[in-house]
């Protein structure tokens, strides 16, 4: 039986990705969902990627949020080594504003899915919310917290600009 690890694993290709990926962590914090974070580079630390992706399910991880920029192979390679849902966040790159990241992550061959979010911080925030929505399917209290979060967001939108 899978035990031990928190339900969500947030992995990223570099320390420089954390500025973006912390948005996913902030959402999980707000919704009371436990997570782990790890720098896992498909190119610089391939053995770490292999160990993480191969071991995640057995440790109890249920969803992986993977963010990377540029030649962003991390989400796809992680997905190739686990049946867990993988949500990919294209980090905004300096050279190409994240279009390289987006296309690297979204164009997966049929058979190995990565649920790809928007480029940058919006994508990371939404990856956190999507992970919450998936977990909420089997967690009624979490479903309630997610519903409350969305209602607070709705209530915070002014009717007119100031
Ligand atoms: C990718 O290269 C990382 O995901 C990051 O977005 C990008 C740049 O990494 P650093 O050079 O900032 O470490 O692997």
Describe the protein's architecture and organization:
- By secondary structure, this protein is an alpha/beta fold.
- The chain has a single domain, classed as Rossmann fold.
- The protein contains 6 helices and 5 strands; from the N terminus they run βαβαβαβαβαα.
- The chain has a 5-stranded parallel sheet with strand order 2-1-3-4-5, sandwiched between helices.
- Helix 1 runs parallel beside helix 5.
- The longest helix has 16 residues.
- It is globular.
- Bound molecules: 5-O-phosphono-beta-D-ribofuranose (RP5).
- The site of 5-O-phosphono-beta-D-ribofuranose (RP5) has 9 residues, from strand 3.
Annotation keywords:
alpha/beta; Rossmann fold; 46% helix; 15% strand; binds 5-O-phosphono-beta-D-ribofuranose
Shape: globular
Count of distinct structural domains = 1
Rg is 16 Å
Structural class: alpha/beta
What is the name of the CATH architecture? 3-Layer(aba) Sandwich
What's the helix count? 6
Can you count the beta strands?
Answer: 5
Helix proportion range: 40-55%
Assign the CATH topology: Rossmann fold
- CATH class category: Alpha Beta
Largest sheet: 5 strands, parallel
Protein name: N5-carboxyaminoimidazole ribonucleotide mutase
Pfam families: AIRC
Domain PurE: 6-157
InterPro entries: PurE_ClassI (IPR033747), PurE_dom (IPR000031), PurE_prokaryotes (IPR024694)
């Amino acid at each position: 039986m899978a035990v031990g690890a928190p339900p969500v694993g947030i992995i990223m290709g570099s320390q420089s990705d954390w500025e973006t990926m912390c948005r996913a962590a902030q959402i999980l914090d707000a919704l009371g969902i436990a997570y782990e974070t790890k720098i896992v580079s498909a190119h610089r630390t391939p053995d770490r990627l292999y160990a993480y992706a191969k071991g995640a399910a057995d440790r109890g991880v249920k969803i992986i949020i993977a963010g990377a920029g540029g030649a962003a192979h991390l989400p796809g390679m992680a997905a190739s080594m686990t049946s867990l849902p993988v949500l990919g966040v294209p980090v905004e790159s300096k050279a190409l504003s994240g279009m390289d990241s987006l296309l690297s992550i979204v164009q997966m061959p049929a058979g190995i899915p990565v649920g790809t979010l928007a480029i940058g911080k919006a994508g990371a925030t939404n990856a956190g919310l999507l992970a919450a929505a998936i977990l909420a399917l089997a967690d009624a209290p979490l479903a309630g917290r997610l519903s409350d979060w969305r209602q607070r967001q709705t209530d915070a939108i002014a009717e007119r600009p100031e």
